[in-house]
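Our platform keeps sequence and structure together, in a single record for each protein. This encoding replaces a full spatial description with a residue-level series of whole-number codes. We quote a single record here, exactly as it is kept in our systems:
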Amino acid sequence: MKKSLLILLVFLYTSIELILVNATCWDYPNPFRPLEKVPSLVCGLQTKKGRDNRVKVLTPNDVFQFKFTCDVQDRILCNKAEKEFKSAGVLIAKLINFNTSIRVNVTFGNFCKDFRTCDDNIIGKAITARTIPLQDDENVVRQYPQALAKQFYLDPEPQWGDYDINAYFNLHFDNPDFKSTVLHELIHGLEISSGWENYFSDQPVASNPGFLGLNSNQVTFTSLTSSFNILYVFIIVLIIFSYT
């Protein structure tokens, strides 16, 4: 076999693999291992623009929907933890416009038993439950966190997962400010700030929400170009001022 033909075959194989990977929805079941992803299904590449996004914004109380699983017999503690999650979700939704609800699968349990992570200093972790491949205006295919992709009203819609965010919180923790940690981790679950920022590439893959206006104290998600930690700081500052 000629060397040029071999190179061509390798190139074609790699191109096909990239197309298949880009058209795949990925599930992230374990927040403690965010690099471990599972191909959920070939959901198809979304290339068409969605319907008009200028729809009615959900009220803060209707945005975050929690499925709360508490692996402890202390119902008072469980109820307090669930209340803090709902309160944190409302607080975020007061600062960011959402037109589609976000489903969060929360487990409040024993890290040492469930994940063999016996560190009481770890309060909790959250991660996007699924990413969706979308082609943006630059004709670049990127993986969007499902919670944000749902806000675009894609037509046709991809196969959404049951949940948008997976979160696990430790019932044995040594930190009194539980709500602050929940706020922090829900922001990570939305992937507004994540460990996927590729600082050394001119082809960024992390989301860059656009500002409605500095005077509005709200943010809307408009595109997926690059990621800047200043946005994360901006939102956290707004949350702190609202919280205090």
Summary: The first helix runs from residue 3 to 22.
